[in-house]
Amino acid sequence: MSSLVSSWILQSSAIALVALAVASVLGRRGAGVREAMLTVAALKFLVPPIALSFPAILPSPAFDDVAVAAASIDRTVVDVVMLVHAAGVLVVLCMLVASVRQLRRLVAAARPADEATRVRAGRLADRLGLRRPVSILISDAAIAPFAAGIVHPVIVIPGVLQASLTDAEIDAVLVHELAHHARGHVAISWIRALLCAAWWWNPLAWRTSSALRRVQEDVCDDAVVRWSGLDVDRYCDALVRAARLAASPAIVPALAERAHPLARRLRRLIDGANAPAPRWQVWTMAVVLAMFVLPARAPRPVNPAGPAAAIVYRDVYDAIVKGGAPEAVAARIAGRVASQSAARPSNARPFKR
Q1: HEC profile of 214-243
Q2: Which of 33, 131, 154, 334 could be 135's S-S partner, Cβ–Cβ 3.0 to 4.6 Å?
Q3: Are 10 and 51 in contact (CB under 8 A)?
């Protein structure tokens, strides 16, 4: 179990570092490539190790040394670590529950949009390839527009913002939020939440989640420029007005795709960094994903020490995992080693797991 956890930590952290490095090299360009890399890195934190496995070479210690080690096993440290981890998970999950409740209150208090807005949203959803119906709601709260809901997708737009925008600018807002649904960002937000809950102690997990959240906004900004027909300057102006009208971006729950600090997004749009990634970047991403994600058969561990050492290690492992009195563990180890050594022929082949 400990080797599995160690491999999990090392592999997930290594893939996160690679994904963050690639995203940093690409800068503000290649939003689709950055999104794919960071999504894979986030998923890897929640998937057990399937690659990068190395053979485990067991040493051949003396029996006395192993017996002393078994007798000195102290589960207190393990119990404390597990308790601290569980407490951290509970804190993050409580924050998640609070966000879900806040989200439901906002959606429940919103009213359906007018017929013209719903028709335009349906037309734009078809253009984006979104087949599921999306409910368009208007809220009286001072919030930024957001998308939410996996089974029943919705888009909530503040009424004061709708009244201050032209039809073309409203279409831009709708395209941005519809793109979140079309690309599955709301579902991925749950993955990010579980990632941060289970790996709350790992700064790479938080960094990966934050970077993925930002690049999702970039991808949806690119969709607006490509499909809404609104020029970049007017779209930037609509973003600034939406941020100004919202009382606080933090009022929108974490499970909704909320507006982010605009300085980076505006600079990216004005610089024209929303062009598709070059072909070499796409191929680079494919190679990196193949190296780190494709399953690989792990070599079987080799035990040059013979059956006695293997039995010792197995009983020590049982003592760690299942517990038990140190004296009983040591006696069981001695009995099994003695019986196994007596029963083994002189020309027997080395023991393998």
Answers
A1: HHHHHHHHHHHHHHCCCCHHHHHHHHHHHH
A2: 154
A3: no
Residue pair 42/208 in contact by the 8 Å Cβ criterion: yes
Strand pairing class (135-139; 154-158):
parallel
CA–CA distance, 106 with 183 (Å, rounded to integer) = 23
Measure the CA–CA gap between 80 and 96, rounded to whole angstroms: 24
| pTM (predicted TM-score) | 0.72
How far apart (Å, rounded) are the C-alpha atoms in residues 197 and 91?
8
Phi-psi region of 246 (alpha: psi -120 to 50; beta: other; left: phi over 0): beta
Q: Are 129 and 146 in contact (CB under 8 A)?
A: no
User: Strand order in 135-139's β-sheet?
Assistant: 111-112, 135-139, 154-158, 146-148
Q: How far apart are CA 142 and CA 301, in angstroms?
A: 60
Per the structure block, which two tokens stand in for 76?
């207190």
Half-sphere exposure of 251 (CA within 13 A, CB side): 16
Q: What is the tens place of the pLDDT at every residue in 13-60?
A: 988 998 899 888 888 888 888 998 899 899 989 887 754 444 443 344
Longest CA–CA separation in the chain, Å: 90
